[in-house]
Amino acid sequence: MTNLNKLYRVLNLSPPPIVEDAFNMPVLWRHAVSFVIILNVLCTPYVLYLLFQMKKWRWVLFFVSLLVAAVAMNAGMVSILSLKGSLIIHFTVLALVLFMMFLRPKVNEWIELEMFELKIRQERLKRAGRNLR
After folding, report:
1. What is the pTM of this model?
2. Which long-range contacts (CB under 8 A, 24 or more apart) does 88-96 make?
3. How many domains does the chain have?
């Protein structure tokens, strides 16, 4: 449960109010988006570590598949459109943001499931205690 709580805290980091206000101001738009992207990039290794600890292999595989898709999209864009320079950083960051976006509601479900299972275990222990008397 502790790894699940850590994962919840990392995925639900909220930006400071000035960043939320920035979405209405075009001048600060780049800074707000940059902040969100940097936050995702910095948190990704820790999120992956927690997923490994909790043995959520499907999510790790989903992350790897998103990165492979980003590299494939980059290769396709470079070869089809004859773009000079690499877009791999843009596609990789997009994959990281999508991964965090898809993972956040799942973590909330996992926490609800853990709380439900904990409640069931506590009720069983209470019933077992009553039966011993």
Report:
1. 0.63
2. 92/67, 93/37, 93/40, 93/41, 94/70, 95/66, 95/67, 95/69, 95/70, 96/37, 96/40, 96/41, 96/44, 96/66
3. 1
